[in-house]
């Protein structure tokens, strides 16, 4: 899975297809991540414990003061788990499925050079319940990103799939790690299920809010869908639209991604 000529508008309904990796978006995501890691605003200085601060260490000998440490306030980029959750319902057939697959391939490429950042990729669709398919995880012996188009079909149960993945994520939370779920979908949920509260959009909103309270961040990428509805479900400032313009996606995603990580670090 390497960077290839622009096949981002290629439409394949079924069968194997290698994802298109957009180099500009890869670079943009990595730049945001590195800036957060290296930013001086990510450190609280003049602390009584933490890491020894080379800029303040002289204070101990010169003034006998012990506030010579610094402590990281922003999250280390080596402690982030990214979970991509892709809509694989019937309405994704064709170009939309290719676009979602290309996003998955691009995100995997962006993070694979940061060894301790773990990225997981899932697809989902539904009949009466949400069916979730894992297509990538760290160390996976067989990468299934090129088989993603074969999972297209059924209804959209974004909220219930988010709930299912959220339960897995919260069950394995660690205090020194952050978790981010990115929902990639083309439209509104269409399948109800046990535990739905009010209409399906309200249920998705409630699931997102519960995950936020548990310390799990949620983003959305709306593919040819209603961006406003996605914002209602996943947060006003946590959604990016993607209609196939990779340049715009690179800029928009980097801005939202950085903002979500900063909020999650508080």
Describe it for me?
The chain has 266 residues and is α/β, with parallel strands linked by helices. The protein folds into 2 domains: 23-34 and 76-265, von Willebrand factor, type A domain (Rossmann fold, 3-Layer(aba) Sandwich), CATH 3.40.50.410; 42-72, no CATH class. Helix content is 36%, strand content 21%. The chain has 7 helices and 9 strands, in the order αββαββαββαβαβαβα. It has a 6-stranded mixed beta sheet, sandwiched between helices. Strand 7 (178-185), helix 5 (200-213) and strand 8 (216-223) form a beta-alpha-beta unit. The longest helix is centred in the last third of the chain and has 20 residues, at 246-265. 41% of the residues are buried. The mean pLDDT is 81.
